[in-house]
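User: Show me a protein chain along with its predicted structure.
Assistant: Here is one chain, sequence first, then structure tokens.
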Amino acid sequence: MKVQKQDIIFVVGVSLVYCSLSAGFSLISTILPDKMVLPNPIENGSLSLKEIVGHFVWGAVAGIVTLKLRYILLGGLLAALIDSDHLVGLLHVEGIPRMSHSVTFAILATVVSLLVFSRKDYRLAAIVATSVLTHISYDMFAGGFGFPVFTPFVNKIINLPRTDWLILETSAILIVGIVSFIVTRKESEKIIKK
């Protein structure tokens, strides 16, 4: 796997858009009901080096099945960058914790990424959509188990069994793998037809 300039530009661009979306989405929580004063993520350890590396590894593992360096890196980076939703805690304002740890954010980020970068990059769509799964999987593995999965429509923290981290990680790997297999097969068919 060789690193090419266009891959670096792509990974940085997608990461910046994703990070901005996560931070912006979290700010919506300041106007929603059921908000609370959020703890500082640095003081409570949720933005530690261990957390960042753990999220990166979990996301990169899902990206490995693409066999493409750009998606492996994106898998890791997006799984870590989802914690940009801690912005509300850093600002010491009231909000809903972990806003980007939701189905709504996964859909929003996937649609925006496809519109901005390529409407037909289905591997990108799979990586962006599953970044929420890999992130939550690591959080559960590390000891967390409550997430606002359906925010902003249901602003309650939903507790998941801690052992479900493996189901979420496996699901992410399968989704990315199936999408990658289908895309690779279609690309091969186009080459054969030429």
